[in-house]
Design a protein that fits this description.
424 residues; mainly alpha; Proton glutamate symport protein; two-stranded antiparallel ribbon; 75% helix; transport; Na-dicarboxylate_symporter_CS
Amino acid sequence: MKKFKVGRLSLGWQILIGLLLGIICGVIFYENKTAITAMQNIGTMFISLIQMIVLPIVISCLTVGIANMGDIKKLGRVGLKTLIYFEIMTTIAIILGLIVGNLFHPGDYIDIHQLHSESIGQYVQTAHKVQHSGIWSTIMGIIPTNVFGSLSDGSMLPIIFFCVFFGLGTAAIGERGKIIIDFLQAVAEVMFKVTDWVMHVAPIGVFALIGSTVAQMGLKALAPLGYFIVLAYATMAIFIIIIMGLAARTFGLNNWHILRTIKEEMILAFSTASSEAVLPKIIAKMQHFGVSEGIVSFVVPTGYTFNLDGSAIYQSLAALFLAQAYGIHLSLSQQVTLVIVLMITSKGIAGVPGASFVVLLATISTIGVPVQGLTFIAGIDRLVDMGRTVVNVAGNSLAAVIISKSEKEFDFQKNRKYLQQLGK
């Protein structure tokens, strides 16, 4: 697969330059409302471009992949493996966050009464609904009563549910379904071409998004919470390098090869703090990497709801950080309860705006931390969100490869050729 290039610079370098220039402009235009509004609008337009192409790609690729898979027993097996793998990795991520928090006590170094607070009103209503919706509402919400309504809302799980059944139905009617498969295959190819065009403006979008963030927050606002930010990023790095590395090694894979393949997507995910911004390219690259179309089209979109490893790390670490800042000692049983609550709650609201923050709002009351405590990390949520988005993207990419290999549908010959192309 050819790398994106404009002139002599690859897309990765262009995004990095956009990131650095955005930080500089953010510092220059600190609290300049006109500049902030302009950068926010440009960044929003870029994210809207990405959102415009995500659903057509998911629908076309997933339906074609399921139709080609054809076997409902195989699909059930793949789905069960995927969900078990997601649950194991998410639980490890939550526990890792708690271990790091217990070892380094980031909350002990904070005077919570002197920190500048930010408004969290935009999240409270969502969190209130989550606390009272229950697991049955979450499960029932997976089944769409109106698939076009789900498309309009951008609700990923109901769309996946519909595409799975539509793909199976297409396969069941045999030769007559081939016209649908060919049509959706053409749609996927068209949307990947559109993705290539959109990615050429990614550096501008990154510049605007990071610039508006820095201009609003200011670099000085990060100082009181610097230790927590560094610790969160270090924990995420440990998860990517050690935990994901061990998971890959268990299945005879090299995690560095996967990270090397998606390096440009990780930079973009970091810059935009948006997993959706890289979903089309992740699906395409994992297919080039050797993962079968059916598996990557199912695993990656599903992982956007069930496999948010970076978010899980942040949620457990932040909960413990706030408890320590308030002087609340959590017993082992309380921390076990926290793990269980986070495992359940995070599955119920993944995909809503500020999902990780909303999860915290919906769960910290179980450990006695006042909801108002979250106002003290609201200001840095965007900054940490950039890091956890990278972990989410990397984790879902690895999941697709692992599930594909476990199903003996990983094309090693295609993988070797692709890695040789990357090395050139």
